[in-house]
Specification:
Blueprint lengths: L2 H12 L8 E5 L10 H12 L4 E7 L11 E6 L5 H16 L6 E5 L7 H7 L2 E5 L11 H16 L3 E4 L2 H11 L4 E2 L11 H10 L7 E7 L6 H11 L4 E7 L4 H10 L4 E6 L4 H10 L2 E4 L8 H8 L4 E4 L2 H4 L8 E3 L4 H13 L1 H19 L1 H22 L3
Helix pairs in contact: 2-15, 7-10, 8-13, 11-14
Length: about 400
Amino acid sequence: MTPAALDRSAAVEAAPTPARRPRIAIFGGKDYPSRGGTGRVVESTLRQLAGRYDFTVYAYASPQAEAHLAGVRVVQFPERRAGGAGVFLYLARCLFHALRQDYDLVHVHKTDAAFALPLLALRFPCVATSHERAYLNSKWSALGRLYFRLAERVFVRARARRTAVSREQAEYYRARYGRTVEHVPNGVEPLAFDEEAAGRLLAGAGVRGDYLLFAARRVIPLKGLHTLLAALRALEFRGTLVVLGDLEQMPEYTAEVRAAARGLDVHFLGYVAERATLLALVRRAGAFLFPSEREGMSMMLLEAAACGTPVLCSDIQANADVLEPAECVRFRVGDARDLAQRLGWLLEHPEEARARAARAAEAVEARFGARAVAERYARLYDEVLAGRAAAAPR
C-alpha cells in the first residue's frame, strides 16, 4: 500500500463514529395525529425534541400518522370499538411489541397504561407521566374507576421517574403514597389561527356577531357546562354562547344540557379537531368560560389564555396553578349563582377584562412555553439515560 493510501486508511480509522441518538418510545397514547388533551402534549414534546432523540410513537392506525411529524416512527394498531376492553387490548398489543424492541428509554403517558410499567421496567429505563386522576371522572363505571385506582398504585410504585402535569397531582401523590412525583407542566406551542375555517364554521351554525365560548375535548359533567347554563339563566343572559366539544360521550348528559339550553341562544358546534380553527374561534370570543370541576392541567385553558381572550374559570387548584387572580376572573366551583355574578361583572367591565387577558397571555408565554417545558423532559431523559449507562456492565 502506498504512503498516500496508508494515510487515507489511517484517517478513515481515526474519524469519529457519529453518536447514535437515543431511541425513545412513547407508550400509552392513542390518537396520532392528536385529537386534543394528552396527545397534544405529546406532540408538542416531539416537535421540540425530534432532532435530539429517535422517537417511536404507539397509536391507533391512521392514514395521516406516518407523515404527521418528520423523523418520528409510528407503530400502529387498529382501534377496536369495545369500550375499555378494546383500549386494554390495544395497550397489550403495544406492550408485546415494545418488549421485543431495543429502545433506550420508554415514556409511559397516562396512568391507565401503568399496568405495563412493571414489565417495561424489566427491559428499559422508564419515565411515567400522570395527566389526571381518571377515577374522579363520573363518566366511568364503578369497575372502570376501580381499575384506575389500581393503576394509580402501580404508577406510584413503579421503577420509573414519575412526573405529573399538575402541581396538585404531584403533591397528592407525595401526601397519599409518600412517593416522589416531579411536576412537569404542559407547554403551549406557538399559536396559529385559521380565521377562514372558523368563519365558515360559525356561519354554518348561524352564529352572528359576538359570542361567549365554552370548549372541552369531551362534554361530560366534570366540565361544568350544566353549571354555566344555570348561571346564564340566573343572569337572564341575552347574548350568544358557542359550545365546542364531543357530545357523544354521555348521551344522558348531552340530553340534559340541551334541555337546559332551551330558551337561550346556544349553538352546539361539536368537537373541533384542527388546532388553528379552534384557536381562531377562541380568539374571536368575547370571553372563554371554563367552569370545570376537575382538571389535571388543561391545555384548553392554557391555549385560551395564550390567545389573549378574557377567561372566567372555576377556582379549582389546577386552574389557580395556571392563572393568577390578576390574569382572569374566578368563581366558586359548582356555584351557578357566583358564576352568574362574576360573568355579569366581566361583561360590565370589558376594559379590565381585556387588561387581565393581556397579562394572562404574557404569563402563559413566560411560564409555560413549549420549548422550556420540552427542555425539562430532555433533562429528565438525559438523567435517566445517564443512570442506565452508569449501571451498564463494563
